[in-house]
Amino acid sequence: MSEDDLKSSQKLIPVVLFFICYYCSQFYFERYGGSGKSPQPTVSLCHNYRLQRKWESLKLNMSRKTELFLKLKDFFWKEHLSTAALPYGIKGSEKFLLKVLAVTSSYKMPANIERTCAVIGNGFSIKNSSLGEIINKYDVVIRLNDAPVRGYEEDVGNKTTLRLFYPESASYNPGIHNDPDTLMVLVPFKLEDLRWLKEILYDEKRIRKGFWKPPPQIWLGQAGQIRVLDPYFLRLTASELLQIPLQPRRQQKPVHPTTGILAVFVALNYCDVVHVAGFGYPEFRNQKEPIHYYGKETMKSMKNSYHDLNQEAKVLKKLEDQGAILYLHRHS
Ligand SMILES: *[C@@H]1O[C@H](CO)[C@@H](O)[C@H](O)[C@H]1NC(C)=O
Ligand SMILES: *[C@@H]1O[C@H](CO)[C@@H](O)[C@H](O)[C@H]1NC(C)=O
Ligand SMILES: *[C@@H]1O[C@H](CO)[C@@H](O)[C@H](O)[C@H]1NC(C)=O
Question: Is the pLDDT assigned to residue 286 strictly greater than 80?
Answer without folding.
Answer: no
